[in-house]
Design brief:
Elements lengths: L1 H17 L3 H4 L4 E7 L2 E2 L2 E8 L8 E6 L2 E3 L10 E10 L18 E7 L4 E2 L2 E3 L10 E2 L2
Parallel strand pairs: 1-8, 1-9, 7-10
Antiparallel strand pairs: 1-2, 1-5, 3-4, 3-6, 4-5, 6-7
Length: about 140
């Protein structure tokens, strides 16, 4: 009986250690603004992809009126080195095929080193208007 109790205790402690703890396991809020050509991006999505971090977890947030917040319709990130990907839409002329309006630019990406705590990160998209369909890499 004692061995069974010890086995369950070890199992529970192992599960607790692997869920959400440590530098790579905690999700953190990221919020900020997204601008393109000096104007707020009306609609879109920001995605945070971990780079070379086996414990890193992807985060994301919708863009609404130039602002995003992973706590509002999104999911926080674990921080560290990430690739930030941005999809942006005009919000005008929405159709069944383009519910967010016309694309403003191709998927834009840039790299960042986010803290492993709640933070803000403003994003300036530097894609060219004619680049829809091509990848862009920021600094």
């Amino acid at each position: 009986m004692r061995e069974r109790f010890t086995a369950w205790l070890v199992l529970l402690l192992g599960l607790a250690a692997g869920c959400g703890g440590g530098a790579g396991g905690s999700r953190h809020r990221v919020s900020g603004t997204v601008t393109y050509a000096g104007k707020p991006v009306a609609n879109g999505r920001v995605t945070f992809d971990p780079v070379n971090d086996p414990k890193g977890m992807q985060g994301y947030a919708p863009i609404k009126d130039g602002k995003y917040d992973t706590r509002v319709g999104g999911l926080g990130t674990t921080g560290g080195n990430v690739v930030i990907r941005v999809e942006g839409y005009s919000g005008e002329g929405a159709t069944a095929e383009e519910p967010n309006g016309k694309p403003l630019f191709s998927e834009f990406s840039t790299k960042a080193d986010l803290p492993r705590e709640d933070t803000t990160k403003d994003i300036v998209v530097t894609a060219n208007p004619g680049d829809v369909g091509a990848k862009n890499a920021g600094p």
